Amino acid sequence: MDNSRKECVVGIDIGGTNTKYGIVNRSGTILSTGSLPTDAHLPFSDFSSRVTSKIIQKINLLESPHHCMAVGMGVPDGNFMNGMMHDPPNFSWTNVPIASSFSELFKCPVVITNDANAAAMGEARYGEAQGLDHFIEITLGTGLGSGLFVDGTVVLGHSGHAGEMGHIIVDYGGRQCECGLSGCLEMYVSNKGIMRTLKECLTKYPNSLLHSIPMEELGGKEIDLAFDQNDSAAIACYEYTGKMLGKGLATAVSILSPEAFIFYGGFSNAGERLLASTRESMNHHLMDVFKETTTLKISNMKEGTGAILGATALAWDVADDKIKLNY
Amino acid sequence: MDNSRKECVVGIDIGGTNTKYGIVNRSGTILSTGSLPTDAHLPFSDFSSRVTSKIIQKINLLESPHHCMAVGMGVPDGNFMNGMMHDPPNFSWTNVPIASSFSELFKCPVVITNDANAAAMGEARYGEAQGLDHFIEITLGTGLGSGLFVDGTVVLGHSGHAGEMGHIIVDYGGRQCECGLSGCLEMYVSNKGIMRTLKECLTKYPNSLLHSIPMEELGGKEIDLAFDQNDSAAIACYEYTGKMLGKGLATAVSILSPEAFIFYGGFSNAGERLLASTRESMNHHLMDVFKETTTLKISNMKEGTGAILGATALAWDVADDKIKLNY
């Protein structure tokens, strides 16, 4: 290694539409960030070479010379244990040895994990979970992801896929999920789930303010605004969502007893509008010993940076030999 | 310490009716065991002095002189973090500083945990879970307890009460539980739950062999025998129990992805009679990525010794300074 260069790591967050990255120094300062289209319909090799050359160019453009020690990546359906991207929805790439491919290009160790675990790691190192040994990060987007911290470490489980809270069943025989099960938590608490609930609420409340907005333009912001104006459909939508979310959280509390759930991304911007009914439902579905033992918080990480920061946290652990990779 | 004496630890398993103990050497050999009535209606001080004097007497009677390095206890509603026995059902003692009380009497460190965690620790050190980093011990008795191992360590959670799988809800609005919730797993999968299901099945199947036995004499053995003779009520009872158990296990797999569930005590003696339908239901309620990733096993620890062995495993960790106690 060239000792005249400072050390940095790269965090990459691969999304279905865009891939975001950040270059971070040892103190956690983001030296540079950027984004480029993922173009998941094109071959993987096209993607990997575009991303690598762009980031190496950015490192070379930093004010002082830096040496990239490791790269961490938040990868949809990415498996930390074997470095593989398995079969994520909306991607034409399946079973890609993504860690080793990028490692050849970057010429340094590359570590991957799934996007929810990356967000949890970012939260633990830089966000609301600093100092917490037991917490669960809930990522709200198209679906619902979760990253578990137990005794200060992310839980991967035997299969490497621990933390699929989006697919615990909160309504047996309920809404059909794409995964094949029915009544999965993410069918109620995610962009797709909440918008479906909203539609149902809108048919019940013909006087809702939200009828004035075309369905395809409706989202969290519009529901929040209507909620703040006491709109019945918006209130009913968040109440139902909170009730279902509270059921799922209570189940996780009975098993893991975390200190906090931290919500990141998407509908987490609804804040207390959604969390008040969630908290009530969670405590309602808990035995006494657990009531009021787990707090609900909104992440303070800027949307889009959570997974990047988490990926860099993981990259530093690899750079510092705290984690040994099998790939 | 007297160097001419060999080292041993004591494991104690406090039950509602009887308290069992074992004296164990470093290689895990049980040097002596015994049992005495708990008499939980009498004052705690009566219990603690009786137990201590009996065990010290037993240590003094061992073939060669031994020195007790530490005592580990499996305590109903016992909290490892603060050494307290909180408010277990069927005991007149509440909020007893049980670890420090026994520590004064034994004149050595005393560590406690709840009975399911103790069983899990015994399983990890001496039983079916040797070499497993991720497993969940399910203890079947009057209720259903669980002890979680993640990354080779028992999970206590933020409150110290992690692992209350008996109270995850598998049927919203279902059977009323003593804990105040309804539809808790232990209302279906425990002595009380299974006997209730059996009663329901017996009304459905008037020709069942089990009608010839008085209800108060019916238990696991009788159901197993009837099952083996293709008795419809016995088969329906275990099918329903397995269906509900599979739902609960699937939820835990989606969250923690353990390598195995290991069943200990009570109805676990039913073995494959119960596990076949449980496995089917578990896989039915799991998304593809988890199907067939978690095995179901029956503990190979003799009933009654599991929690004692686990408690001694914990005691050795304390004796060897691997665990620091706050009490």
Compile the SSE list and pairings.
The structure is a homodimer of 327-residue chains.
Chain A: E1 6-14, E2 18-25, E3 30-37, H1 44-60, E4 66-74, E5 78-79, E6 84-85, H2 98-106, E7 110-113, H3 115-126, E8 135-140, E9 144-150, E10 153-154, H4 191-204, H5 220-228, H6 232-256, E11 260-264, H7 272-284, E12 295-298, H8 306-319
Helix pairs in contact in A: 1-2, 3-8, 4-6, 5-6, 6-7
Please outline what is shown here.
The structure is a homodimer of 327-residue chains. With 327 residues, chain A is of the alpha/beta class. Chain A is 35% helix and 20% strand.
What would you note in describing this structure?
- Two copies of one chain form a homodimer.
- Chain A has 327 residues and is an alpha/beta fold.
- The first copy, chain A, folds into two domains: 6-119 and 304-319, Nucleotidyltransferase, domain 5 (2-Layer Sandwich); 129-298, ATPase, nucleotide binding domain (Nucleotidyltransferase, domain 5, 2-Layer Sandwich).
- Chain A is 35% helix and 20% strand.
- Chain A is built from eight helices and twelve strands.
- Chain A has helices spanning 44-60, 98-106, 115-126, 191-204, 220-228, 232-256, 272-284, 306-319, and strands at residues 6-14, 18-25, 30-37, 66-74, 78-79, 84-85, 110-113, 135-140, 144-150, 153-154, 260-264, 295-298.
- The first copy, chain A, has a five-stranded mixed β-sheet, sandwiched between helices. A five-stranded mixed β-sheet of chain A has the order 10-9-8-11-12, with helices on one face. In chain A, strands 5-6 form a two-stranded antiparallel ribbon.
- In chain A, strand 11 (260-264), helix 7 (272-284) and strand 12 (295-298) form a beta-alpha-beta unit.
- In chain A, helix 1 runs parallel beside helix 2.
- The longest helix of chain A is centred in the C-terminal third of the chain and has 25 residues, at 232-256.
- Chain A starts with 5 loop residues before the first strand and ends in an 8-residue tail after the last helix.
- Chains A and B meet through strand 9 and helix 6 of A and strand 9 and helix 6 of B.
